[in-house]
Write a structure and sequence with these properties.
It is a single chain. The chain has about 650 residues and is α/β, with parallel strands linked by helices. It has three domains: about 260 residues, 2-enoyl-CoA Hydratase, Chain A, domain 1, CATH 3.90.226; about 180 residues, NAD(P)-binding Rossmann-like Domain (Rossmann fold, 3-Layer(aba) Sandwich), CATH 3.40.50.720; about 170 residues, N-(1-d-carboxylethyl)-l-norvaline Dehydrogenase, domain 2 (Orthogonal Bundle), CATH 1.10.1040.50. It has 26 helices and 17 strands. The chain has an eight-stranded mixed β-sheet with strand order 12-11-10-13-14-15-16-17, sandwiched between helices. A six-stranded mixed β-sheet has the order 1-2-3-4-6-9, sandwiched between helices. A three-stranded mixed β-sheet has the order 5-7-8. α1 links the parallel β2 and β3. α1 runs parallel beside α2 and α8 runs antiparallel to α9. The mean pLDDT is about 95. The chain binds 3-hydroxybutanoyl-coenzyme A (3HC) and 1,4-dihydronicotinamide adenine dinucleotide (NAI). The site of 1,4-dihydronicotinamide adenine dinucleotide has 24 residues, from α12, α13 and α15. Monomer. Its main location: other. It catalyses: a (3S)-3-hydroxyacyl-CoA + NAD(+) = a 3-oxoacyl-CoA + NADH + H(+). Pathway: Lipid metabolism; fatty acid beta-oxidation.
């Protein structure tokens, strides 16, 4: 079947694009649209054309799978120009998303109309590129420079009503899109036509505007190259004639397409889309998830409850006594209050979210839930006792999950009569924000239970990654190696602050030592102490020396650094230097690039071991874990991608 079909409703022609799954602008579609313009221009019975798409969305952009290959004619900028020059006015009728090249096609049309829940945007920077078919040159002619800069440098889409008030679209359609768009077209041809977008005037901000914008973009990009290049392209559009600006944009697009950053971001794009639906589970039906319970309303439990409520499901919280129930519900309310404070929720929305969380100490309340997620203290005895109770009260097909970070899920499940429905679901803090969900089946976990874990991931809009059982699963195991390697550098004489600066320079929000000061050094210390108490041979770390001296991080006023009360900025510590004297070699001159190469290389080496042991299924899975759970810079593609030529 052709990806483009033409029909006629009186003097209005409709061009329907049907190129599943997302109507991406592959060669067949570009050619189909090119031919449609020619055919309809030649048809005297047609006065206007409505461009509409079948399936879940309008054209979602260029076909990203073509980016590794040489471009083939008709090129997208030429197609957009061809649309603009069409003798009959085209009306883009948008549902779902008009993104990147899809929005650029809409900009080539004389009019744009959209359903109220449709979104438009220029997400190219999230793929390490800039728009390549006029997005930076035409968009500011419709909405002004400030909004074009915001859209194209962040890649964030706009909903139709906002796009309408910004001038990016001409109408929001209520009811049936095609009917509304045809009616719009009929009315439009009775009026004088507006100029094509390329012929409209553009604002010319002063140098100070660009200076501020460059500063802001450099700060938020944290090392990603595309945002500042997109800014330069918009600036060019304000300073040069249309054709010259188009050429500049295309040249930048072609250059960035071939960069390491673009390759990394494309790899992440496809890995993220593959993660929620692993091939091995394609034929396994997940169990329905209508009602979920969470045991423990502390830091993690409250965040998990908030995430489930955000997905629209009711939640039951079980705590150990009435006071703890009240504290747990208050913790959950706090999460929603935070949403109100940050302007993400209205008070009424927050209230609805709070209302559907019930707290109790009575396990009988769990008789009809579909899934239970345990988030109680990290103690095997406490967890086993919880699962013994769950085994007694829950339906035989209810999925029972643990959020343990380090305990062996097999040992936790020993208390269960039917361990096939048991699974590890490892959330990351704050659980309503962090995208990563490690899914940890035991050898007894049934395929249906595993599929239900992934279904929960999809429901909560997480990035689910399956992990085998080992100390720390995928993410914390690599974290441990990374931290040990960072300590190794300190022992070799590399200053603590230089290591943190190197990793910040690499693109992480924080270096390894600053991050430990924020999270607290004591958790890992207690774990090592626990292992030592069991007779395991765990070497004394530099962190242990600090904790033994009372330095547990920011919460004790000092850890790897000193902190002045009320100020989170780390200060290099003479006390730490004194405590570590004798452990640390004389200062060495290692460059920041060398430091980052060593530490990322260590992460990748641990990743390799994880793959060899079958703990992770693919390097891409490991990269998703580090990007979505540990702040690894997305544009680097993850430690495995970044080190792929070296491992
Ligand atoms: N090219 C190729 N494949 C794409 C694609 C694209 N632009 N966008 C999505 N897909 C594929 C996905 O890989 C996935 O494939 P799979 O089923 O085999 O895993 C399938 O389409 C469905 O994608 P999602 O799971 O993301 O579907 P959703 O319904 O959740 O979301 C969407 C739909 C919002 C359109 C989302 O797919 C999306 O954001 N896509 C990317 C849009 C984008 O980045 N466009 C800009 C491209 S760059 C460009 O246009 C350059 C131009 O300026 C020259
Ligand atoms: P927390 O100490 O903040 O909360 C634990 C909660 O469990 C408390 O509210 C406590 O009252 C409750 N509880 C204890 N025993 C109970 C019982 N028998 N029945 C019902 N409730 C009980 O702990 P946190 O940080 O929320 O951790 C919970 C689990 O999540 C642990 O297994 C931890 O390893 C894991 N985890 C923690 C992360 C973190 O960053 N804090 C990240 C990922 C996992």
């Amino acid at each position: 079947m052709s990806v483009v079909t033409i029909a006629r409703i009186g003097e209005i022609a409709t061009v329907t694009v049907d190129n599943p799954p997302v109507n991406a602008l592959g060669l067949a579609l570009r050619q189909g649209l090119w031919d449609a313009v020619a055919e309809l221009d030649a048809d005297p019975s047609v006065r206007a054309v409505v461009l509409v798409c079948a399936g879940r969305t309008f054209i979602a952009g260029a076909d990203v799978t073509e980016f590794g290959k040489p471009p083939v004619e008709p090129h997208l900028p030429d197609l957009v120009a061809r649309l603009e020059a069409a003798e009959k006015p085209w009306v883009a009728a948008i549902h779902g998303s008009a993104l990147g090249g899809g929005f650029e096609i809409a900009l080539g049309c004389r009019f744009r109309v959209a359903l109220a829940d449709a979104q438009i945007g220029l997400p190219e920077v999230t793929l390490g590129i800039i728009p390549g078919a006029g997005g930076t040159v035409r968009t500011p002619r419709l909405c002004g420079i400030a909004m074009a800069v915001e859209m194209a440098t962040t890649g964030k889409p706009l909903r139709a009503p906002k796009a309408l008030s910004a001038g990016l679209i001409d109408a929001v359609i209520q009811g049936d899109l095609l009917e509304g768009a045809v009616a719009f077209a009929r009315a439009a041809i009775e009026q004088p036509l507006p100029l094509p977008v390329s012929a409209r005037p553009i604002e010319t901000p002063d140098a100070a505007f660009w200076l501020d914008a460059e500063k802001a973009v450099a700060k938020s990009a944290k090392g990603a190259a595309a945002p500042s290049r997109v800014l330069a392209s918009i600036r060019k559009a304000t300073e040069a004639p249309f054709a010259e600006a188009m050429e500049f944009e295309r040249k930048t697009f072609m250059e960035l397409r071939g960069t390491e950053q673009a390759a990394a971001l494309r790899a992440v794009f496809f890995a993220e889309r593959a993660a929620p639906r692993p091939a091995a589970l394609r034929d396994v039906a997940a169990l329905p998830l209508k009602k979920i319970a969470v045991i423990g309303g502390g830091t993690m439990g409250a965040g998990i409850i908030a995430a489930i409520r955000d997905a629209g499901l009711p939640v039951i919280l079980i705590e150990r006594d009435d006071d703890a129930v009240a504290r747990g519900l208050a913790n959950v309310a706090n999460v929603f209050d935070g949403g109100v404070k940050r302007g993400k929720l209205t008070e009424a929305q927050a209230q609805t979210l709070r209302d559907d969380v019930t707290g109790t100490t009575d396990y009988e309340a769990l008789a009809d839930v579909d899934m239970v997620i345990e988030a109680v203290f990290e103690e095997i005895g406490v967890k086993r006792a919880v699962f013994a109770q769950l085994g007694a009260v829950c339906r035989a097909d209810a999925v029972l999950a643990t959020n343990t970070s380090y305990l062996d899920p097999r040992e936790i499940a020993e208390a269960l009569p039917n361990p096939d429905r048991f699974i590890g679901l490892h959330f990351f803090s704050p659980a309503n924000v962090m995208k990563l969900l490690e899914i940890v089946p035991t050898p007894d976990t049934s395929p249906e239970t595993l599929a239900t874990g992934f279904a929960l991931g999809r429901l909560l809009k997480k990035i689910p990654v399956q992990s085998g059982i080992c100390d720390g699963f995928i993410g914390n195991r690599i974290l441990k190696r990374y931290r040990a390697a960072a300590e190794g550098l300190v022992r070799r004489g590399v200053p603590i602050a230089r290591i943190d600066a190197a990793m910040q320079g690499y693109g992480l929000a924080m270096g390894p030592f600053e991050a430990q000061d924020l999270g607290g050094l004591d958790i890992a210390f207690l774990q090592r102490e626990g292992a030592r108490a069991k007779g395991q041979d765990v070497a004394e770390t530099l962190g242990d020396i600090l904790v033994r001296a009372g330095r547990k991080g920011q919460k004790t006023g000092g850890g790897w650094y000193d902190y002045v009360a009320g100020d989170r900025r780390p200060q290099v510590s003479a006390v730490v230097a004194e405590l570590l004297r004798g452990q640390v070699a004389a200062e060495t001159g290692m460059s920041e690039d060398e430091i980052a190469a060593v530490l990322v290389g260590e992460m990748a080496a641990e990743g390799r071991a994880i793959l060899d042991e079958g703990i992770a299924a693919s390097p891409a899975d490991i990269d998703l874990v580090k990007i979505h759970g540990y702040g690894f810079p997305r544009w680097r593609g993850g430690p495995m991608f970044a080190s792929r030529s070296r491992i």
